Fold these 2 entries.
Entry 1:
Amino acid sequence: MARNISPSLLAANFGELEADIRMINNSRAQWLHCDVMDGVFVPNISFGQPVISMISKISEKPLDVHLMIIEPEKHIDSFIEAGAKSITVHYEACRHLHRTIYQIKDKGILAGVTLNPHSPVHLLEEIITDVDLVLIMSVNPGFGGQKFIESSLNKISKLKELIERKNAKAEIQVDGGVTLENAPLLFRAGANNLVAGTTVFRSPDPVKTIDELLNA
Ligand code: DX5
Ligand code: ZN
């Protein structure tokens, strides 16, 4: 599956958001990752639909919206109206995950499920053929700039096995503590889609860093 880098805007300069989005437009990143936090599911609040809507007017990259909110089904339609091209919801936040995945897919965009570090891969056994994307959290969600949890590598391998065994088509995305050092290990374990916040936006040359991640 093609490699995909999705820079996380959470690490951008919010005072110069437009400049940072245009910089990503001029890079080889395929997606732009937007972290939505509600202060309930995760201990932090980020931004919501009005900001996503402005981002979508500037971004030439599809918006990859990671919902870290409870009851995501209440807000999916408005995030799609705001410009989301893929939405991932947390396994831990969905009472009726299958229904929520089809609520997203029926609107014609990509649907993904996210696993927190404590949630095992086998929980996805009965949903893996329905999703376009699985997001493995390699930190506890809520903040950028945290340290990569090493056991995530094993989870990626297990997920790859599950996808192959079920003849599923899901992409494997990894989010949290992704660096130039661990990117080759993540690709080798089976991930094809890396989210990177700090590594991209705190780099002296983010466009070059995106190239380096793609070639890692
Ligand atoms: C964490 C977010 C991540 C975060 C990643 O809850 O989901 O997308 O922005 O940031 P880094 O790459 O700095 O760990
Ligand atoms: Zn994220």
Note: The CA atoms of residues 92 and 128 lie 16 Å apart.
Entry 2:
Amino acid sequence: MPEDLEGTFRERYGVAPTHLARAPGRVNLIGEHIDYAGLPVFPMALQREVRIAFRPREDSLVLAATTEPSYAPCNFEISSEIEPYEDGDWGNYLKAAAQGMARAYGLERGFDAVIQSTVPVAAGLSSSSALVIASALALAGSSEFEVDPIELAELMAESEQYVGMRGGGMDQAISAGATRGCAARVDFAPLRLEPVPVPDDWRFVVAHSLVQAHKSGGAREGYNRRRGETEEALERVVAKLQLPVSEVRSYRDLLERVSGPKALAAAGECLEGDLLKRFRHVITEGARVIRAEIAMRGRSLTGFGILMNGSHASLAEDYEVSIPELDALVGIAREAGAVGARLTGAGMGGCIVALCAESKAAAVLEALTALYYGPRGRIDDLDDHLFVAEPAAGASVETM
Ligand code: NG1
């Protein structure tokens, strides 16, 4: 356990913590804004993680502070109906986990905890789901039971909707179920993770635009609106193709019945404007994920990079979730030798991920530093914004 985490716990509660729960953030390599369409995505867990040092309590209270003094401590009772804090309060992620766990398992014991996170917040690297998964594991640990990672991920994907974002299930899945050294193809309904080893000489560079995409603000609205648009587009195409509405409820259901090109042709006849663009993104991004998995298994660095570039173009033009800062980062990374670069996560702020050969990583990092962070006066805290992703293992809980 990191010393500062244990130290803060001892200072706060006067005793040592008994357990440590940890859950990684993630970088999505490809497959953006399609988890909620039921289509496979391709993320990788990060070495950046949320850690919770805790000690079970005899009662059903949760007391939690963080090592970051700007976040006020939170304190609430576990039940199957928990009143949320004000919109945007970090404690709502703990409450989301507690309410979900209480509903599923009837929890009786809470914990005293101190939380530490090395995942940048509102960066599209899933700090929120890492906190939710780590909290759920701490609650299970306090009540002395274990939960299968897939079961936990499914439950927490639903539970996290407590904060008002109609998310898909990608983040919870990879945070709970990742395998070290691997990315994973994540399939939904039923949830399944298929680990794919990341070739040793590939480097995924993550760079933050310094623009935060807060889930309590415009980013959440933009996200939910796009999800609504994809659903409406799907309904219209299903009607156009005269498919049974009760059976075709997701893009996956649609693509099990008609090919991508046929779906796109039908969309061209019944959709226009934003709905057509959103539909096209979902269908083409789904196809890119399938090809990206093949490219990684076949160690085709360039092939994977080309697909990432296609993904960014589609997210910028058809899904309209990029911003000039993300486009600038993508351009700098490519210019410096990345074979591909794209915004990662929900967009509208947050990070990009760029792929390059090991031999080019230093040049990509240098170019991003000199051309993006330097001019913005952000060299001092560079480690928070710019790093090479290391494919990490999924969440765990251990007794100290
Ligand atoms: P981020 O980037 O962490 O906000 C969100 C959703 C994902 C997925 C991506 C876009 C949550 C918790 N996460 O992630 O499910 O839809 O956007 O691909 O809602």
Note: Residues 273-297 form the longest helix (25 residues).
